[in-house]
Automatic annotation (TrEMBL):
It comes from the Bacteria. This is DUF2058 domain-containing protein. InterPro entries: DUF2058 (IPR018636). Residues 27-56 are annotated as: Disordered. Residues 40-56 have a biased composition (Basic and acidic residues).
Amino acid sequence: MAVKSLQEQLLGAGLVDKKKVKKLKAETLQHKQKVKKGKASADDGSERQAELKRQRDEKIEKDRILNLERQKLAEQKAVQAQIRQMIEQNRIRKEDGDIAYHFTDDKKVKKLYISQSMHNDLSAGRLAIVKLFDSYELIPEPVAVKISERDESYVLVCNNRVESVEDDPYADFQIPDDLMW
């Protein structure tokens, strides 16, 4: 005895007619086609997933680079604020003087009128000249060293301290008092 399919059994029992059988066949055929498309789209989906993952990775890398740049800018601003604060807190009030002290700023020779004692301190390296915005300030040499460690562009003049050297070959020669450079 041959085994009849469920469809044939339902048709033989009179529970369904031929129109319903054709409709069910069409629905099952459509379902099979959708399943095939789903599998095919799953392959396309894997390519799409790979593309989306690559785009996400690129965006993450781009964001990381932008964050590093922002962090560097924030650090530079913090250093500039520290330098400005150190200059403002340690600046020495300029005494009006009649001695012109010449120095260079951005390949230009500038002149600052100071007193004789400040001139001596600048020459000996106890004072330094720094630039704050568009003005020039005098600060102690240790502060100038700290500033130059952070950013050398602020310090314009910082002579090395001249300490007495025991074996100085020119110690016997006097420097004239009226010698100005």
